[in-house]
Amino acid sequence: MTLFMNIAVDGIAYGMILFMISVGLSVTMGLMRVVNLAHGGFALLGGTFAHWFTQELGLPFWPAVLLAIMATIAIALPLERVIYRRIYGFGDLQQVLATIGLTFLMIASVNYWQGSSLLSIPLPENLKQSVDLGFRTLPVHRLVVITVGLAAILGLWLLLERTLFGIRLRAAVDNRGTASALGIDTDWIFMAAFGLGAGLAALGGILGAEILPIDAYYPVRYMVLFLIVVAVGGMGSIAGSFIAALGLGTLETATRYLVPDYATIVFFTFVIVLLAVRPQGLLGKAHT
Amino acid sequence: MKTWGPPLLLMTLMVVLYFALPFNLAFLTRILIMIVLVLSLDLVLGHAGIATLGQAALYGAGAYAAGLFAIHVWADPLAGLLVGIGAGAILAFVSGLVLMRTQGLTLIMLTIAVASICLEIANKARDVTGGADGLRGIRMEPVLGLFAFDFIGKTGFWYSLAVAALVFLFLAFLTRAPFGLSLRGIHESQDRMAAIGVSVYWRRVTAYTIGGGIAGLAGALAAQITQLVSLESFSFTLSAEALIMLILGGTGRLYGAIIGTMIFMFVHHWAAANDPFNWLFVIGVLVLSVVFFLPKGIIAAPPALASLFKGGRHAGS
What we know:
The complex is a heterodimer.
Chain A: H1 2-32, H2 39-56, H3 61-87, H4 92-114, H5 125-128, E1 130-132, E2 137-139, H6 140-162, H7 164-174, H8 176-181, H9 186-207, H10 218-233, H11 238-258, H12 263-277
Antiparallel strand pairs in A: 1-2
Chain B: H1 5-20, H2 25-47, H3 55-72, H4 77-99, H5 104-124, H6 126-129, H7 154-176, H8 178-188, H9 190-195, H10 200-226, H11 236-249, H12 254-274, H13 279-293, H14 301-310
Helix pairs in contact in B: 2-7, 2-10, 2-11, 2-12, 3-4, 3-5, 3-10, 4-10, 7-8, 8-10, 11-12, 12-13
């Protein structure tokens, strides 16, 4: 029972990290139909800025996190204007290639700026403490991660379902031409959605640094993981990404507890079988 | 003779380089091995239109199979190549049965997943593969019993050149044969090919299997010549670099794969020598400029430049 509870708690915390980083990817891939392999790069940029603000400029943790997210968005928006906008019309393969090129540029830039060593983001004292859950102690940090993850999905749901921005965004996704003809500024909407995705990636990268440590090669190392979450969940489906992230996070945690030597193999085999049976993902719409 | 001009020119160039760079034979041999791998990718992706980022899985399977065969069974190079081809083809066939049911992004993702599983198995099976230390102790007998592998790598170079040339010839005939033409048809429109009675699924599995055999051959060649197989053989980076080389040169024309590989390897070599930390930056810029300015690859550069100088703003589009 204790083992089961351990798996549940760690799995959910891990799943929340995966969700926060991947949901932005789900939004951009589902919306703009761009296979964005550089998405992990925005998590890397967020983590690098957070490291820089806390370690070299000596800012406290939370202001540094906020500034890091803003800095990442400040890089993502012009990138969307200059590069991504041109990529939208390309074929799958061209998109893959262009975003791999972009990932290389991000890795090289971080490498040049901060070196290739581990970029630590020290947690404040009150996040390092533990709480007693009865069967085990849990770092407060994990609880914060779970809370922020829940807040993110609630916030996204409200934003997409209940605001004018959400209505316009969904209209632009369903039919860009018609939405634009009705006077919706789809360029602006897409740019805002892209910035939102990059910001969420940065937040996930910073909060997840305890589990997925930040260094220059971060985007290449975890690229597959983020893509898998989106593919399993179904592109463009936020609920799908949420279920997939929690499910895959729990699955990976469970295999690490139960069969540590075969965790990765079991994980990927499961993903292959699932996608072979259901290529469009759990909640994705079938492509025609 | 127009179609045979570029490959003959490239072969001659390799021989010229052999005499021009006698102290860089290991590098030139590496280029030849990558050419074989990128050629296999051109069959799978350029001709059959199967988007894959997991070609390293098949390359690595060939490398480990050939290495293990040489250590435990027989150290004859040609037999080892056949084992490498077999291993790559079998893995491609088995995984292809599942992979070819999917398309686009899901397919790309699953090919990465297959390579990740292979990497993990090679990593965990330390007793057999040497794990993270790599598979060591590969000693090869002379090629055809005549040409011993020497310290400078002369035999390795000519051996690889011969294999690369044979692979090129094989693919040149295959892609012009009815089977190759049907792959091209599938690439252009699967529905149309299905409508005229072609089994798209089995053609794709077959193409993937043949491509897998050739990728396995490249891996076997690498294992025999470097006498070491490392986990890098299965890495995502290798798959991504092979893809970049192919797109750089231009897909769907075999010699594009050769040109792309040569350019990438030389740029890589030059950038890594000048600033080992930031060669990724140079590669990133190279990739982005090709995607944006020469989407059909470097081999499309001369006509693109020509139309630019003629002043026709929309020429060629």
